[in-house]
Design goal:
By secondary structure, the chain is mostly helical. It has one domain. The protein is globular, with a radius of gyration of 23 Å.
């Protein structure tokens, strides 16, 4: 839209008020959004902690109720499935403890990501804040819950004396950093898509439930058979889970596991960025 203004000296001044919708401008605004969210990290921490307090308001144990239920599930499934799969309890219990705790983190993160923008409808419509902040809030909130559930893993390692050593923690760091990047990406991606199409969250829930059974979470990768192990790296849930779980179990992972995890993460981040740069300005109208 072009507006012409008449100057005092009689010469016309033309102002171009057409919004810049070029691709480079969309990328600049998206980058600015991420930078503003990073600058508001203190607010993100406060909001995440407030979410935890409100969720467990009036509870005596707070998020430790989830820790307690996870511990009971690990114990029950450990005894039952070790007998069903004919695996020694000493070997299976650390595996199922790590698998359930880490999978619960991933599954809850994906589920919360679907509601990332719709659940913050009031804040989005009442004040201007970077959309990346809502994604970071989801990731940090689930990290706090994961920190509570790590107690289950520690108790199992202490009781069975299966602690892999401090060196394993160093091997976990790159994988966990990749998890954080993927968590931000999936929260932005699903948050935007689910804000536009409200029937997507049930579909995502069904996909995650199916992925739980086809991914080595309750069954060990060795049960898949040596002749079919090459198929596992094609499962993104397996590779992303294994880059954190494997070192904590004292396993040396095949290079294809890391290649697959990084490859799927790059695709996820690229897809998220392409979508976020294009629809960022419409999210406020979709929620």
């Amino acid at each position: 839209m072009t507006v012409a203004l008449q100057a005092r000296a009689g010469s016309a001044i033309t102002l171009d008020l057409t919004p810049d919708r070029s691709l480079s401008a969309q990328h600049r605004r998206a980058v600015l959004d991420v930078c503003e969210a990073a600058a508001l990290w203190r607010l993100c921490c406060t909001l995440s902690w407030l979410d935890i307090k409100l969720r467990y308001r009036g509870s005596m144990l707070g998020p430790f109720w989830l820790t307690l239920s996870t511990g009971v599930m690990v114990g029950a499934m450990g005894f039952i499935y070790s007998a069903l799969f004919h695996v020694q309890l000493h070997d299976y219990l650390p595996f199922i403890a790590l698998s359930l705790v880490l999978w619960n983190f991933l599954g809850t993160l994906v589920g919360d990501g679907c509601q990332g923008f719709t659940s913050a409808e009031g804040m989005i419509r009442s004040m201007r804040m970077p959309y990346s902040l809502y994604a970071a809030r989801i990731v940090l909130r689930n990290l706090i819950v994961l920190a509570h559930n790590i107690l289950v893993i520690i108790v199992v390692d202490v009781l069975l004396d299966t602690w892999p050593g401090a060196g394993a923690l160093l091997l976990v760091v790159p994988g966990f950093v990749l998890w954080l990047v993927d968590g931000l990406a999936i929260s932005l991606l699903l948050g935007a898509v689910c804000a536009r199409f409200r029937d997507i969250p049930p579909i995502v829930g069904s996909v995650m439930q199916m992925a739980f059974f086809v991914t080595p979470v309750i069954w060990q990768p060795s049960a898949f058979g040596a002749s079919r192990m090459w198929l596992l790296p094609f499962n993104p849930f397996y590779t992303l889970l294994e880059i954190v779980r494997g070192p904590l179990l004292g396993l040396r992972l095949d290079i294809m596991v890391y290649v697959s995890a990084v490859g799927f993460s790059v695709l996820l981040v690229a897809l998220t960025w392409l979508l976020f740069t294009r629809v960022r300005g419409r999210i406020a109208f979709w929620v």
